[in-house]
Each structure stands twice: as structure tokens, then as C-alpha cells.
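Researcher: Please translate sequence to C-alpha cells.
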Amino acid sequence: MKALLKSLVLSTAIVLPAGSVLAQDSLKLIMNWTADSAHLGFAVAQANGLYEAANLEVELEEGRGSAVAAQLVATGQADIGLADAGAILNVASQGAPIRIISTIWKAGQFGVISLESAGITSPGDLRGKRIAVAPGSAQASLMPVLLTKNGMTEDDVEIVSAAQSAFLGLMTTGEVDAVAETPENIVVPLASEGITATNMYFYDHGVPLVSLSLVARDDKLAANPDAYARFVQATAEGWQKAMADPEAAVAALREVFPGGEKSEDALMQAATYSFSSVCPGGAGDAIGATDAATWDNIYEVMTTAMGLTDAKPVTDYYTLDYLPETAVTCP
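Model: Translation complete:
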């Protein structure tokens, strides 16, 4: 497939007469939610002309959830979606002709968060502790997997069912020792009050899961594969540039999405966690690329703990064909 994409680019260059200009390919991206730190790389690519340089006219549209984004792509109302991989695979498992072409958050931000004073630094420290989990959330399915992977069962902890909106109060009053959530929703607001919290990621402790990923329809990919490859490349370059200068990245986000509610300080704090999800392997990690072996591990977790049917092989849900031939790496 990569050889085909390269051939298409070369053949296009050959047939163009001198001085001619190709019409830009238009692509509409529907995001998972309203603009925040999860979208810094896209805003940088847009504001700094990286999409334009790739001969793309890109429309970035804020979304209403990952499941909605995946459905809009499946029905052809958007060319590309940014959505949580779990939501994408659930939609695809029901027959939607869509697949993941790049993993932006290569590691999900789900984790077990506790106040620094609680002294919880490893899964073993959870024994005998009270952990708040929102019913019906992804974390509710992942907590038993985390415990099992680390030699424990649910009998070793006390799971407290609570709404996510109650987590901050439960932690600060000492009613629970930890919560299963994302750092942006817990660590960042606590930090604004001068309270230090620590995050223990699921993916660091035996539960690998990619999160926000780019998804497209099979027929649209087949119709214009080169445009999608150029989009993936320019997006990876946008994230690379965003990590090199976070302040400029936040400014770009505000320029592209001027109606955002979050403060500059909140976006800067959240950017740290977003960047760690884009680059879980640190400097030199390939942006947007999750290898086949990791996908196999992810599929095992999703089919054994999260209700995904195993009727189709994991290779039906993703492709590596649209990734840059030369990896765009984390700074």
C-alpha cells in the first residue's frame, strides 16, 4: 500500500505541466469533543499552514463525543474522525466500513489517581483502599483487569460507585483513597487549588489501550489514499511542532477555536498529559503509530474485559498503510 501511495505521488508529479497548480483536496475532520489540549496538534497544523503545504484544505469541526464522531464518519458526513479507539471498534464491529488509520493518543489517559499524601505509587498499594469508579465508564471495566494483571482481585479493594462529578469532593474529604479517572479531570483542577495528586496509568501496569485515533471510511480511503496519507503526515508534524513549543500551540488552539472556555493556564497544564499520551515512549517515539503487536494486546483487553466481539480479527479494525514512510518522532 505504501508503495502504491508513493507511486501515485510520483505519477502526479510527472503528468503536471510546469507552472500548474493542483487543486487542494478537501477533508473534513469531526473531533471527539470541543477543542482542548487533545486537539493542539491539529490546531498547530492548521494555524501554521502544514495542511496547506500538504495540498489539503482541512475543516476542523468540534464534536459531541467519540461514538458520534465514529458514526458521522461511518455515514459519510465527515471524511475523518478523531474518536476514542474503543468507540471506533464498537461501531466497526457492528458492520460500519471504517478503520483506524493513525493513533494520536497512543496511550489512554485512564488511570488511578490519588492525593500524593495517600502514598499510592504502585498497584500493590491499592490493597485495602477505597477506589471511586463511575458506573458504566470504561474505567469500570478496566479496574478488574488492572487488579488481575497485578496479582489481585476485586476482594482486595473496595470499589465505590460514584458519579465523576463527585470525585474531587470524595478525594479531598478523604471518603475515598483514589479515583479511576483521567488526570485532566482530576489532577489539573486539584493543582489549581494547590493540592498535589499522582496518576498511575493503566497502560503502565499491564492494561494497554490506545485512545483518540483517526478513523476513515474504507471507500473514501480507496478513492483518495494519498490525501489521507498527507493528512496523517501533516497532523503528526503538527503534534511534533506543538510539543516543541507548548505556549505557541495553546495560542494556535485559541486562534483556530476562539470560543474555548478553558483558561490558558488550564490548557498548558493539560497539554502535559496530552503530550504524554501522544508520546508514551518518550523522545524518538513515532507519532501516530501503534505497531501490530501492541494492537494484538489491546484487542485481547477489549474482547475479554470490555465487551468487544471477537468475531473479526483485529486487523479488520486498523491499517498501518497511511503512516509516514519516515516516522515523525517525538522531540
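Researcher: Any highlights?
Model: Residues 6-20 have pLDDT under 50 and may be disordered.
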